[in-house]
Each structure stands twice: as C-alpha cells, then as structure tokens.
Amino acid sequence: MRRAKSRTRRFARAWDDLRGRSGRRIVGLVRDQVAIARAGAELARSVASGEIERSAARARMADVEHEGDEARAELVRVLRRVLATPIDREDLFRLSRSIDDVLDHLRDHVREIDLFGPEDLRFAAEPLQAVIDGLDELEGAVLKMIDAPASVTEAVLATRKACSRVRQLYQARLAVLFAGPLDMDTLRRRELLSRLDAVGRRLGEAADALADAMLKRSH
Q1: DSSP per residue over 64-90, as a string?
Q2: 26-35 pLDDT per residue, tens
Q3: Alpha-carbon distance 93 to 46, whole Å?
Q4: Which of 84, 88, 145, 176 is the most buried (most CB within 10 A)?
C-alpha cells in the first residue's frame, strides 16, 4: 500500500513537472523571498526617515526574518521533491542564499540602529531606497525566468545598477563623514553605512547567481 502511494506521488510530481507547474511554484517561492527582503528594506527605511520607533522596528524585523526563514525552508523542501527546475538547482540554492543574506544584513542594520545608532538617521534613507529599487528589479527578473527568459538579463542589469548606486552613496557619505570630527557618532554612522554596503553586495550576488543560471540555461 505504501509503495503504491509512493508511486502515485512520484507520478503526480512528474506530471506537474511536465506541465510546468513545479517550475512556476519554485519561481513563486523565490519571489516570496524577494518580497520579504523588500519588506525588511522598507522597514529599515521607515526607521531612517523617523516613521517608526527603533525598538518597535527591531521587534517587527524579527517577524520579517522569521517569514524569510520559512520561505527559504519551503523552497528547499520543494527543490528536494521536484524532478525539474526552471534553472540549475545549485544556482537556485545560491540565489536563495544570497537573498537570505540580504535580509540578514538588513536585520543587523535595524538591530544596530536600536543598539547604538545616532539620533539623525537620514543619511541611510537614500541607500535603503536604492536597495528597495534593486529588489524590485530582481523580483521582475525572477518572474521572467519561465515566460520571458530573454528579458531576464536586462532586469538583472537594472538590479546591478541599483547595487552600484548603494556603493556610490556609501562612498559619498563616508567621504563626508570623514571630513568632519572623528568622534563616537562618526564611528556609529560608519558602522551603519558599512552594513548597508554589505546589503548592496549581497543583493549583487543574488543578481549574479540569476545571471549565471540564465547563461547556463541558454547553452
């Protein structure tokens, strides 16, 4: 009886693969991860602009991180069961891990703001908006994997452009910061800026993972 049920499940998965359902489900799960990371970036930007109190944002970020962990865990479970994937399985893991890293660094950014952040956080708002823009572009690239694979590269390039914007803003703000007095406030701002630079780098790694996967698929 158990063997019969097992064969039925394998047949159902194979049938879903043939009809493309598994691929679309995987795309949806990756999109969920991106959307959750975007929610984390929006939360961090709200703190920087003074729209939400720091300790409240830190508590909310813990919930967002939990949602991200669940989304990644579900993607891993599905990848273990399906027979066919829209891109290479290894690249999917790499993409998912990089998106998770983006959220982890955003979590640390909000935590550090609550622990030792300076009073004025407006310097972080624009870099965080660039992160949000990059995540929007990445989401668009993910959604095109199946139906418009030729368009993924353009969306990935837009993601990379947003990452470059994060790096440029980081460098510009750091230059202004070091032109002033070197005190504890300077060190706090530097740490927060470095964390945002790390967010941008992890987002760039996610874009690279998707670009590499699509290049493999085209050969």
Answers
A1: HHHHHHHHHHHHHHHHHH-S--SS-HH
A2: 999 999 999 9
A3: 30
A4: 145
Residues of the chain with pLDDT under 70: 1-20, 219
- Cβ atoms of residues 159 and 37 within 8 Å: no
Name residues whose C-beta falls within 8 Å of residue 81's C-beta, 6 or more positions apart in sequence.
Answer: 13
pTM, full prediction: 0.89
Cα-Cα-Cα-Cα dihedral sign, residues 157, 136, 28, 44: positive
Q: Which fold has domain 2-218?
A: Methane Monooxygenase Hydroxylase; Chain G, domain 1 (1.20.58)
On whether the CB atoms of residues 114 and 58 are closer than 8 A, the answer is yes
Distance separating alpha carbons of residues 163 and 133, to the nearest angstrom:
9
Q: Which helix (H) or strand (E) holds 156?
A: helix 152-178
**Both structure tokens of 46:** 């709200």
